Amino acid sequence: APKAYSIDPDGTVHLPHETLASADIQDIDMDRWMAKSTAELVTTDGRRIKLDAFIFKNLHLIIGSIASRLHPDAWTSEAKPFKSDAEPEPEVHADGEEEK
């Protein structure tokens, strides 16, 4: 059975109910990614398609692939935010909990 989500090397994204060519994806909204593990694809015709990586295993790799292509200065291919050298990593101590 095909996986619910996949991405081809050329950037074509296969979703459960449709396939989007790389050119059909105008943007990816990562505003809620760090807090909720959700991102929204914004299509060239203005639709917003929610991607929830909390539900689907390895969806973060697809989100990261799209985000790093569209926003290479902000996101890695693993959907991690790039830290500039000017911003030191926050320290995490053994007695403290890091926010997800």
Based on secondary structure, the structural category is alpha+beta
Number of extended strands: 6
What radius of gyration results from the CA coordinates?
15 Å
Helix content: 10-25%
Q: Provide the low-confidence segments as ranges.
A: none
Mean pLDDT: 87
Notes on the protein architecture:
The protein is of the alpha+beta class. 16% of the residues lie in helices and 22% in strands. The chain contains two helices and six strands; from the N terminus they run ββββαββα. The protein has helices at residues 33-36, 59-70, and strands at 6-7, 13-14, 19-20, 25-29, 38-43, 48-52. A three-stranded antiparallel β-sheet has the order 1-2-3, covered by helices on one side. Strands 4-5-6 form a three-stranded antiparallel β-sheet. The longest helix has 12 residues, at 59-70. It is globular. The chain starts with 5 loop residues before the first strand and ends in a 30-residue tail after the last helix. 18% of the residues are buried. The mean pLDDT is 87.
Q: Any chance you could write out the topology, listing elements then pairs?
A:
Layout: E1 6-7, E2 13-14, E3 19-20, E4 25-29, H1 33-36, E5 38-43, E6 48-52, H2 59-70
Antiparallel strand pairs: 1-2, 2-3, 4-5, 5-6
